[in-house]
Write a structure and sequence with these properties.
Elements lengths: L1 H11 L4 H14 L13 H12 L14 H10 L9 H10 L11 H20 L30 H9 L22
Amino acid sequence: MGFARSFMASRWLRSAARTRETDTYALLSLIPALVKDLPGKPADEELRAVLRDYALLPEGRRGDLAVDRLPVLRWMEATSLPLAALQEPRIVRAALDSVTLTFDGKVVSATSVRRKRSVLHHLIETAVELRELPSNPLDTIKWKPPKATDAVDPRTVVNPAAGSSAVHRVDARPSDGGHVRLHVLRGAPA
């Protein structure tokens, strides 16, 4: 967890808010998977809350950690695997597997896997650059991300009636002479 914190601190000033959000989301998946399996493990939701609201924020952006969250932070600090553990194939595979799941254990989209794996890759490349690791162990693991599906999420598609109505109202704003131009998109320019 210590290297992840320094990684986030180093990227914070140079990154857009959306990039920081992507980095944080990936680390919220990765860090709970990279701890020793010891008694007293807090729930993953508690681990993620401490990471998101405190541990992964730069020093100047952190608020006070709630007293009831202090044991969670201490447990995480005590059980986090050292960065060098990423040289072990089973640990790298556990990290890769963790980026394929949502926080409630469902499979994420191929795009989300790519984004989260990219954050892991950048974190490890930073460690290699800083000579914390000799090479990037992701290069030695035979792991394939889930394939993208061609299925369309029906929640993201407009229904036929609303689509037809929108197409018929593409440009209904006043133009020259106060007339309203109405364009119907049928493949030819209006």
